[in-house]
Each structure stands twice: as structure tokens, then as C-alpha cells.
Design brief:
about 260 residues, alpha/beta, Spore Coat Polysaccharide Biosynthesis Protein SpsA, Chain A, 10 helices, 9 strands, globular
């Protein structure tokens, strides 16, 4: 009687981290998980790792695609679950995450998406910080107050079928776009103190390499939905452009320091 949870992992040349990601899903203590891995045609040994766990996967594929967003959409097109999530191939779940998320959604039918805390971890899996998660809603999302760690978010499939798939035109902010769409339909709920995932920061990760692409894409959502050019989110973006180099320097310094310890 437990609801099926469909989890999608998009993968491309992340063999260094992929097995830890997959095991963090497959070793969850929730018994009704449909796990889907969509690889973009990796050449670094990722396919061999995926095949090693093939008998525990609902579906897997390795073929060229149009990138991460396309891979996620491809996976969810195969999903049958009542609850959905995606976990990138360099991130991991904490034990018990899926069970706790399902329990909350089962006892709070009015909530469309639930999310917990996420650690920042380095390449070796060591905790180097905490994602700044906080309660948000549709109004605050439109102001750029995101604070949802994608790795620790779970939402209802019936809402996905109303607002999905992800917009393939987004490279970075496809999750923000999804949160906005979901928040139009149902409340989002943050559970402070519940650490459900680990967000890996590493030199080749999008968060470090392409961070400057995030906010322009968020502004595309803002203007698409009728937002003004003089608003909280546009002011935040102007400030962020000034301080972003310092934030990225601090992140790189965190990673370097952790690797030296």
C-alpha cells in the first residue's frame, strides 16, 4: 500500500561519483522505489557502473541526449510513481530520506512538494557546509527567494503531469522553473533539521563552472510570468553580479581547504 517513488538520475561522464549516487538510492530503507538512470553516452566507465546494478533498476539507457534537462525529462517519461524526485549523478541521499519524505506527504495531502536540508560535500564526500534551505512559497519564489535544495526535494506526480516536463530551454534554472510552477498549484513545505541529501561541490560541477548562468535564467521565468523590470528579483540579481565573484572564490577556497586536510 506504500506509494511508489520514482527517482531519476541523469548521468554523463561522472563515473568518479556515480556509484555513490546510485548506492545512496538503492540502499534506502523505503521498499517501493522505482529507480531510473539516464546516461548521455558516457565514455568514462559510467556505463559499466550502471550495468553492474542493472537488476535493481526499473529502466536505464545510455545514448546521446540534449543535456541534463533532456535526460531528466526522458526519465520521468518512463516513471510510474506517485511521488517523484531526481538526484544528479554527483549528489547523494542520506539514509532514511525517501521514507521520511513519503511519510510527510502521506500525512499532509495538501502539500505538493516537501524538502529537507542538504549538506555541501567535497569530492571525497566530506561535509564542508550546509545549503541555505528555508521555507519559501510562490510569492517568495517570484522574488528570487528560492532556498530549495533540489537534491532534497520530493513532489507529487499528479502535479508534475499538470506542469511538466522541464523546460528544455533551461540549462541551469530548470529546477527553479519547476518550483514556481508547482507552487502555483499547491503549498511547498520545508522540514528544518531533516538532512536528506548531499550536494557535491567540485571543480567541474555546474554550480562552480556555470553559476553565472543561473540568475539570467531565473529572470526569464520572472518576465515570462509577467514580472516587472523593477522588482525584488531584478534588484537581487544586480547585487549578486557584484558579490558573485566573492562567493565563488569562497566556494573554491572551501574545496581547496577540504582537499588539503
Amino acid at each position: 500500500m506504500l506509494p511508489l517513488v520514482s527517482i531519476v538520475t541523469p548521468s554523463y561522464n561522472q563515473a568518479q561519483f556515480l556509484e555513490a549516487t546510485m548506492r545512496s538510492v538503492l540502499e534506502q530503507d523505503y521498499p517501493n522505489i522505482e529507480y531510473i538512470v539516464v546516461d548521455g553516452g558516457s565514455t568514462d566507465g559510467s556505463v559499466e557502473i550502471i550495468e553492474r546494478y542493472a537488476d535493481q533498476l526499473a529502466w536505464r539507457v545510455s545514448e546521446p541526449d540534449a543535456g541534463q534537462t533532456d535526460a531528466i525529462n526522458k526519465g520521468f517519461a518512463r516513471a510510474n510513481g506517485e511521488i517523484l524526485a531526481w538526484l544528479n549523478s554527483d549528489d547523494t541521499y542520506e539514509p532514511g530520506a525517501v521514507r521520511e519524505a513519503v511519510n510527510f506527504l502521506m500525512t499532509h495531502p495538501e502539500v505538493g512538494l516537501v524538502y529537507g536540508e542538504a549538506n555541501f560535500i567535497d569530492e571525497a564526500g566530506r561535509v564542508i557546509g550546509r545549503f541555505p534551505a528555508a521555507q519559501t512559497d510562490y510569492k517568495r519564489l517570484r522574488q528570487g527567494y528560492v532556498h530549495i535544495p533540489q537534491q532534497a526535494a520530493f513532489w507529487r506526480a499528479d502535479l508534475w503531469h499538470q506542469v511538466g516536463p522541464l523546460d528544455a530551454g533551461f540549462y541551469f534554472a530548470m529546477d527553479y522553473d519547476l518550483w514556481v510552477r508547482l507552487a502555483k498549484l499547491a503549498p511547498l513545505q520545508y522540514l528544518p533539521g531533516r538532512v536528506w541529501a548531499n550536494f557535491r561541490l567540485h571543480a567541474s560541477g555546474k554550480t562552480i563552472v556555470d553559476d553565472d548562468r543561473c540568475w539570467p535564467e531565473m529572470l526569464r521565468v520572472h518576465y515570462r510570468d509577467g514580472g516587472s523590470r523593477l522588482s525584488v528579483i531584478t534588484i537581487k540579481y544586480a547585487i549578486r553580479k557584484v558579490v558573485a565573484p566573492l562567493w565563488n572564490w569562497r566556494r573554491r577556497r572551501q574545496m581547496t581547504k577540504a582537499s588539503q586536510e
